[in-house]
TrEMBL record:
Annotated Pfam families: Glyco_hydro_100
Organism: Raphanus sativus (Radish)
Protein name: Alkaline/neutral invertase
The protein's role, per its UniProt record: Invertase that cleaves sucrose into glucose and fructose.
Family designation: Belongs to the glycosyl hydrolase 100 family.
Gene responsible for this protein: LOC130498563
């Protein structure tokens, strides 16, 4: 199975002027290609990690340099110019047979379904640059003036002063892995966790003199504020759930306990049964009068890997996964979010999106690519048995089903109704998980140890075990 996965991954490789520069999203010849024949920045990350773990860093280096070059392009959508630091969502290689010449064509959101903004692309680029540096021991790439400038441009978009009263990033729907309307607008956990991790990686990569010095100072201040905000207000466990249940509303001044004026009656019924006696998780979103209590896998795993989650919170997230194994893992790891939204709420939140029907695609679908993130997170928390169990579950079907993009159903029993086969990141996610299982030192590429200086005084319960 591993051998055939490598063969499939190599078939997905994209070349530009003779050099490998990435992998296409899927090698599925049974369907119209649509946008699956290009290199997506977020999709390439597990492929890149697989190549790094296998001692093949050249494709990763080429990818980092080519996307960096694309960042410098003028970016216009309908006469509106995007920020200088925006990284492309994807790119493709165009071959001109007449001139026998190859060029790169980038998409910054102007061609995407729904014209969604690729907010996460820049964060993944920084995280991958750090993984490359950690894996190869070669800092010369990150030290290049072009790379240093690229990091600064990405983060200057996020660290600029504005009207917001929170240290989190305000984002529109569709700005991350969930790239269609799913009600994640506002302050989605995935973006906040990736933002936090990119900031920490940037601290390790940026030179602390010259133009980098001021940026480093901004990063340190933001990390302190962001870690406190996320650990305090996005964290949910049984005690915190009970506190919200008893909230008073219309509180004014800095002494308010219910700081976001959340109405207790807005608590969904499912969350009371879902929350185990021990355990907890970072909820999907927090903003004025709104708490999205859904579980999002990627955001919680990245929170562990970046040490946004305290050790106690990381343990509690693992406790939750074990306690709710059937709901979150089931017959195919791992639920991208839980639970699904349906009926009238589905119509309002998704705009009647036929691809995001209940328990399908981003609306409670199961995504094999998340296996690598789960595996890395469980090793970070010292719970390798969870990874072994999840990989065994995936191996029972993943290869036999020809590596689907996602699975449908309450426990991930059915191949997704519109899922592409031979999906590259499903293949790469499995390979990365297997290699981490065989050599846990690989986890160091994507995991950051806790920064003791950033540990705030917690005013809320991490978990009942604290």
């Amino acid at each position: 199975m591993v051998g055939e996965a490598w063969d499939a991954l190599r078939r997905s490789m994209v070349y530009f002027r003779g050099q490998p520069v990435g992998t296409i999203a899927a090698v599925d010849n049974s369907e119209e290609k649509l946008n699956y024949d290009q290199v997506f920045v977020r999709d390439f990350v597990p492929s890149a990690l697989a190549f790094l773990m296998n001692g093949e860093p050249d494709i990763v280096k080429n990818f980092l340099l080519k996307t960096l070059r694309l960042q410098s392009w003028e970016k216009k959508i309908d006469r509106f110019q995007l920020g200088e630091g925006v990284m492309p969502a994807s790119f493709k290689v165009f071959h001109d047979p007449v001139r026998n010449h190859e060029t790169l064509i980038a998409d910054f959101g102007e061609s995407a379904i729904g014209r969604v903004a690729p907010v996460d692309s820049g964060f993944w680029w920084i995280i991958l640059l750090r993984a490359y540096t950690k894996s190869t021991g070669d800092s010369s790439l990150a030290d290049m003036p072009e790379c240093q400038k690229g990091i600064r441009l990405i983060l200057s978009l996020c660290l600029s002063e504005g009207f917001d009263t929170f240290p989190t990033l305000l984002c529109a729907d569709g700005c991350c892995m969930i790239d269609r309307r799913m009600g994640v607008y506002g302050y989605p956990i995935e973006i906040q966790a990736l933002f936090f991790m990119a900031l920490r990686c940037a601290l390790l990569l940026l030179k602390h003199e010259g133009e980098g010095k001021e940026m480093v100072e901004q990063i340190v201040k933001r990390l302190h504020a962001l870690s406190y905000h996320m650990r305090s207000y996005f964290w949910l466990d049984l005690k915190q759930l009970n506190d919200i249940y008893r909230y008073k509303t219309e509180e004014y001044s800095h002494t308010a306990v219910n700081k976001f004026n959340v109405i207790p009656d807005s608590l969904p019924e499912w969350v009371f049964d879902f929350m185990p006696p021990q355990g907890g998780f970072f909820i999907g979103n927090v903003s004025p009068a709104r708490m999205d209590f859904r579980w999002f896998a990627l955001g919680n795993c990245i929170a562990i890997l970046s040490s946004l989650a305290t050790p106690e919170q990381s343990t509690a997230i693992m406790d939750l996964i074990e306690a709710r194994w059937e709901e979150l893992v089931g017959e195919m790891p791992l639920k991208v979010c839980y639970p699904a939204i349906e009926s009238h709420e589905w119509k309002i939140v998704t705009g009647c999106d036929p691809k995001n029907t209940r328990w399908s695609y981003h609306n409670g679908g199961s995504w094999p690519v998340l296996l690598w993130l789960l595996t890395a997170a469980v090793y970070q928390t010292g719970r390798p048995q969870i990874a072994r169990r999840a990989i065994e579950v995936a191996e029972a079907r993943l290869h036999k089903d020809n590596w689907p993009e996602y699975y449908d159903g309450t426990v991930g029993r059915y191949v997704g109704k519109q899922a592409r086969k031979c999906q590259t990141w499903s293949i790469a996610g499995y390979l990365v998980a297997k290699m981490m299982l065989e050599d846990p030192s690989h986890v160091g590429m994507v995991a950051l140890e806790e920064d003791k200086q950033m540990k705030p005084v917690m005013r809320r319960s991490n978990s009942w075990t604290c």
